[in-house]
Amino acid sequence: MPHSSPIPAFDLEAYDFDLPAQSIAAYPSAEREDSRLMVLRRGGGVEAEAAVADLAGFLPPECLLVANNTKVVPARVRGRRPSGGAVEFLLLTPPVLLTPEASSQTGRHRAHAQGLVRASRGPRRGEVIEFSSEFAVEIAVSLGFGRFEVILHWSGDLVAILERIGSVPLPPYIRREAEERDKARYQTIYARDDKAGSSAAPTAGLHFSPRLRRELEGRGIGWAEVTLHVGYGTFSPVRARDIREHAMHREHIEISRETAQAVALAKTQGRPVVAVGTTSVRALEGAYRACGELREYRGETDIFISPGYEFGVVDQCITNFHLPKSSLLIMVCALAGRQTVLSGYDRAVRSGYRFFSYGDAMLIL
């Protein structure tokens, strides 16, 4: 519920709302564009309720959509420790960012990485866990909270191996095991094989179907892409009561020259830049903050966008409905206004909208 008494914008409690468990989507809609769409005006309120299939009719003519082309890697693998105990490993380092070297002793590739290890007893330094004949993980250094520095050992193509033996790392609030169909549905249709690196999907993009893409193009709506490899830190809660003290996780971003030029042209021509998802917002604004302007860029960002932030690139946004007190909700409030967003969320809960990764969408104009 929206707060009736004033709460400072830097107080985490200002971003809380009541969310029934049944509002959390455990499965995607039957078709990608079947999801519901709430249209929200920045600083105003709800203007329309429709379906994502109707998106083209609400977007400004000739606007530029900017989407995140990262690919989710099925990087959760299960196996047995040498002692026989069950173990689960989730690779956190994007495979495309690994620096592999060949081992003269085994002929395998090896690379340093980070990952989450879940086992009944904590793994020991130097322990090697074989998940298949092609893939093993050597424990190096504990980073706390189940996170470890590890050394990966593999033969052949790592992503192909994970495609065979791994499962999709569904978000922790989806309380079910990943199924075979999640490999397709928890992936955008424009995810690029050479951008395999995410632990979570850029979920606003999950709504886009081939038909919708064709309709958008036919209406003269532009399309550009960025890359942000979504880390598992996206699910980390904001723990600081004063959000100004929140330490944001780092994620790898890439802005191509073509995208930077497309955005610059749209700005010059007065055409709105519409980010497809909060990850696209973070990539664009993170690169803008790093360079002082939007230009070709490759690096990391730890940008935390909260109310008071002045957007340098993004004008509008398509996004899903986010968790209470999350950094993603705080970002959306920075763009559209806290009371506007929370009023929209209250209406969404009462109207039966589906929340989070497999849920419905909001267009912020």
How would you describe this structure in keywords?
365 residues; alpha/beta; QueA-like; 2 domains; nine-stranded mixed β-sheet; seven-stranded antiparallel β-sheet; 7 helices
How does this model look, in words?
By secondary structure, this protein is α/β, with parallel strands linked by helices. The protein is built from seven helices and 18 strands. The chain has helices at residues 158-165, 182-185, 210-218, 257-269, 278-291, 327-336, 338-350; strands spanning 36-40, 46-51, 64-68, 71-72, 76-80, 86-91, 101-102, 109-119, 128-132, 135-144, 147-154, 196-198, 222-228, 251-255, 273-276, 297-301, 316-320, 361-364. The strands form three sheets. Strands 2-1-18-17-15-3-13-14-16 form a nine-stranded mixed beta sheet. Strands 5, 6, 7, 8, 9, 10 and 11 form a seven-stranded antiparallel beta sheet that branches. Strands 4-12 form a two-stranded parallel sheet. β1 (36-40) and β2 (46-51) form a beta hairpin. α6 packs across α7. The longest helix is centred in the C-terminal third of the chain and has 14 residues, at 278-291. The two termini are 22 Å apart. 43% of the residues are buried. The mean pLDDT is 95.
